[in-house]
Amino acid sequence: MIDWPHWLPLLAVLPLVGGVLTPLLFHRLPNAACFWAASIAALTLAVAVALLVRLLASGGFGYAVGGWLPQYGIELRFDEIGALAVAAGFIALLSLVFSRHYVARAVEPDRAPLYYALVLINLGGLNGFLVTGDLFNLFVFMEIFSVSAYALVAMARAPIAALAALKYLLLGALSSLLVLFSVGVVFAMTGTLNIEDAAVLLDASSAMPAGLALAGLATGFAVKAALFPVHFWLPDAHAAAPAPVSAILSALVVKAGVVGLLRTLELFAGGDDLLQPLLTLIVWLGALGALGGALMALVQRDIKRMLAYSTVANIGYIFIGLGLATASAVSGAMVHSVNHAVMKSALFLAAGAIIHRTGLRNIDDLRGLGRRMPITAFGMAVALIALSGVPPAAGFVGKWQIALGALEAGQPWLVAVLVVAGIVVLAFGVRVINALYFRPPARVPVASAIEVPASMWLPVLLLAVASLALGLAGTPMLAFVGPAVQSVYGTIP
Amino acid sequence: MNARRRTARILAFALLAALAGPLIHGVLQLPAPGSADAPAHANVTANYVERGAESGGAENLVTGVLLNFRALDTFGEVIVIFTAWLAAAAVAGAVSETGRRAIPVSPVVDYVIRALGPFIAAFALFVIVNGHVLPGGGFQGGVVLGAMLILLSLVLGPAPVAGAFSARHWAWLRATGVLVFAATAVIGLALTGHLFGLPAEPVLRKSLMIVLELGIGIGGGAVLAGLFFAVSGVQRS
Fold this sequence. Notes:
The structure holds two protein chains of two kinds. Chain A has 20 helices and two strands. Chain A is mainly alpha-helical. Chain A folds into two domains: 267 residues, no CATH class; 223 residues, no CATH class. In chain A, helix 12 packs parallel to helix 16, helix 15 runs parallel beside helix 19 and helix 16 runs parallel beside helix 19. Chain B has eleven helices and no strands. The longest helix of chain B is centred in the last third of the chain and has 31 residues. Chain B is mainly α.
């Protein structure tokens, strides 16, 4: 059953069709729509796990859609990078379970089925993006998860949400345009859209058209990933969106930008003269993003804005790792992409649970909540500690590897950047934990708050436990992404 | 304020010019369009041109590429179109009971548009079902269909056009493209052993392609009309 070849296209097609059917079957039935969406997400997760088992057993594999040879049709490929689909399925499923009570209040009831449809379509687009081996197909799936993400941000009731979504839409459309243009340039140079094929045919030594394509792809994906200085759409969008959407956006959708950049590097493998300046630039921008994001997070009063800026900081770490281009740094960046996804979705869901129960989002107002909402507060505290990189939690593995890579690459100043950013992250973590546990309540909603229902605290708790457990799984995860590092960068120290 | 706005404009223009320079320079270095040995015409495309009509199953090569060779892309595009409607419906303003009334237009315009309606619809159908031979197909025909519905909504007011079907039926019509495509993908799996595959038997393949084009056309037209209805407030979900 695991070897059934058609699981791979179903990874994307199943949630897409499930999403389109949601408003048709469950018009005005928000609870049934939620149950349906969660079931589809669970099935998708099962498909992703089956693919992962096959990958572990026999290495990467492909699927020829429609039975055409790779260059003539579209080829899907499942490799270690595509295995991020397991994390995507897991986080989407938990966010959907969390949504049942949250969305009942945050979104008008007769629009709730549209919300669930958009979440499923977003998941399908992400999965397709992760596993496609074709440049234009990459663009199509990027449009699917982007368009659904813009709409999901706008669905929050706050008036600011519409503005944030518009900003996200304009920046996102610009980045999509850059990617599409660059795909066109690559096609004009090689006459193929298959990534593996194009990587062979692309004359990466000719500076100009190839450099243009590389610059367009890198800029486009950097906007999607919210790399400094093109991150400025992110804090508004991620803070304004409904909390489960913030979890999906911060955990998964920005990581698609990272994966897009990895696919781009794969395309230009061998063109060292072009790649080297880009990698150096990425290290610098990553360092600025890590420091700036952490500092901006520290001065926020709104808890979701704080978490959003922390995402900018973590994307900074990941890009430092990708830019250093040593085996330990790149594998660290890949592992951190997954670990950050788990930790940040735990945090956004916990913040959502608190906002759902108390209506408060200012950190100082959350004083004393640890006693009133023990499980949610515990989940948030654990995920915050994990995020700050205290060993052996999940945040530690990636940062340690990236620091090792910095030393290997002879850039010890980056270790200082990582340490300073880590201390700042710990500082805002301590600030929240202090408010939750060690201060008396100052606000009435806190004093009368009770724990949220199990469908909300269970996802938080599971993700918080996972952010501890993934730290212990550091070594096998690093070994797992090893082949992907080699296939993207070639043989590197 | 005015001086400031002017400075901002000049800066924006300078930035655009600075960006346009390298873009134009880069594009000029690309292989000349139309030259026979350009990679874009030589590599995969040459094979499409040589054998595409036969193996793709459509005399119009573009249709063969869209529905057969690169069916997954087209499926994705149909999803994007549907998602656009979902997005509009999710964020559009509250539903008004009656919808906006028709803006009075001159009787000549009114008469001409009503009289043209059936012809536009027939042309849309022609474009859709002939997509495998002539330029056109589901997307183009769907746009013609949608344009006709919007034109009629402008003249008659959106409410009577939206009222042609119940909200539920409109919802299924909008999803036609996606659902027909998904069904064809599964039929392809049963017949060829590959998801999104089309059988090699010519009559069966042609019929499946026409059904696909019809689905895309009807779905696209309904989504376009749905976008108009959502914005004008007659119908949401």
